[in-house]
Design a protein that fits this description.
Elements: H1 11-33, H2 36-43, H3 47-53, H4 57-68, H5 82-97, H6 100-111, H7 116-144, H8 154-157, H9 159-169, H10 178-194
Helix pairs in contact: 1-2, 1-4, 1-6, 4-6, 4-7, 5-7, 5-9, 5-10, 9-10
């Protein structure tokens, strides 16, 4: 851990040090065991300095989690088939959700249920990050004549990944077998898309 006698930092440099320390603590001990004292010690600052910036442990950890996410836009697969594209996207999401970062997210969601503002921050990020790539896949399917234009809505587009998230959040999965991804696509997603024909 960093010594509390490190060089004094202010503003963005201090914020960055605190967020980095929080990320390291989340990886080391998880959300359930993370303490503001632990973050302060790792960041080389005082706990009251952290509370001046983030009003709660949940707010700090959500900010740190959002910092962990990739900033580059996700590239949509283009296999020539909506089924193959959807499976590729689900496999990519499954790989991400089964990592330590996915575990951190699951703990975080369970731990901040009493903080509606934090939950809203997470939901907004999740919908922003995922909708565009799924809409791109569906738009290509529409142009190929596989899917009717009426299916091209954010809610329809993300049904498959929402079902995958449920496997993790509601069923407690730590990794979802590929066979389940195929079921989601073949038994739910494709029939939903076809119902718009």
């Amino acid at each position: 851990m960093t010594s509390a006698r490190t060089t004094r930092r202010r503003g963005a440099a201090l914020d960055e040090a605190i967020l980095q320390a929080t990320i390291e603590e989340l990886h080391a001990v998880g959300f359930r065991s993370l303490t503001m004292d632990g973050v302060a010690a790792r960041a080389g600052t005082a706990k009251n300095v952290i509370y001046r910036r983030w009003p709660s442990r949940g707010a700090l950890c959500v900010a740190a989690y959002l910092r962990m996410l990739p900033t580059d836009p996700e590239v949509a697969p283009d296999t020539g088939s909506v089924r193959s594209d959807a499976l590729a996207l689900l496999q990519r999401a499954n790989d991400r959700m089964s990592t330590p970062v996915g575990q951190i997210l699951r703990e975080l969601v369970a731990g901040i249920q009493g903080e509606p503002e934090r939950m809203r921050d997470l939901r907004e990020q999740a919908s922003r990050a995922g909708v565009a790539v799924w809409l791109t896949v569906l738009a290509r399917a529409v142009s190929r004549g596989e899917v009717a234009p009426s299916a091209l809505t954010p809610r329809v587009a993300t049904v498959a990944v929402d079902l995958l998230r449920n496997e993790y959040s509601l069923n407690g999965a730590t990794s979802v077998p590929n066979a389940v991804l195929v079921e989601i696509v073949d038994q739910v997603y494709l029939p939903l898309l076809r119902s718009h024909g």
